């Protein structure tokens, strides 16, 4: 496997999520964030039950904050649907959804009490938890990861094995990220030149034998708009499939105010159901918050998300469910690829299904 060096700024790595670095540097960065945040108590206005909000009709609502892992887009649609359609308010909550970005350490914020809830991915959660950040997943809207490697149809590549066997092929990805580490262990990429992911579609659009990391609900749409013919090689098909857009909170909040957590989970589940069935109003709202997300890409996004949220293997009525076996498998993969020490692996503590089960329990 060949590497070319290069720079990947926070501005440009909008789908890389982390700049290119080794797993040890990633964990070191996460630890620094956790240590810095550990001494910062939660703003009293954000604590459950304090700073109550009065509505125009006299109702008293509890303020709640949810911090996203990225700027508003389709992968957050269910949470926005719960806001737009009043499901949070029905639970007595005044929810603020804060956009994220490349420099927002969501899991650390949640663990340190800087925000009550956050949205992030399962692999990130396990890595940050290894640095004693006690954040816990309570809902998994996306069962399958949207992570893919996008290639040109003209390259003739239809599988990862064909990619690995392609001479003079260039692949743009951040090797320090878990999915990339997994690909490097799973595939023989000795014939492939790996370059840092730069966040731009230009190389992909101009070079036939060029592939790039992507999310299947975003970059492929933009590539098609520029007359490209992309093919998505889903990383989940190789076996690396972390839950995406997890709703997470702190263990402290679970222990001190489980009723609040239950309300947020219940409303979020309703929001995701609404978004998948009737997304237009929510997409209009997301577009008002993030003009880079036009209605066309948002509509494409939700259609692409549907099979990720409710794959054929998922029983009816189980949207948002987490499988303990999937957490164990992911943790083992992170250990095997050297991203996580075996002594730090405790996947059973990274999630709880109690709130999902209560929210979906049939009424007697």
TrEMBL record:
Pfam families: NMT1
Domain SsuA/THI5-like span(s) in chain numbering: 74-280
The protein, known as: NMT1/THI5 like domain protein
Coiled-coil boundaries: none
Record-linked InterPro entries: NMT1/THI5 (IPR027939), SsuA/THI5 (IPR015168)
Transmembrane segments: none
GO terms, biological process: thiamine biosynthetic process
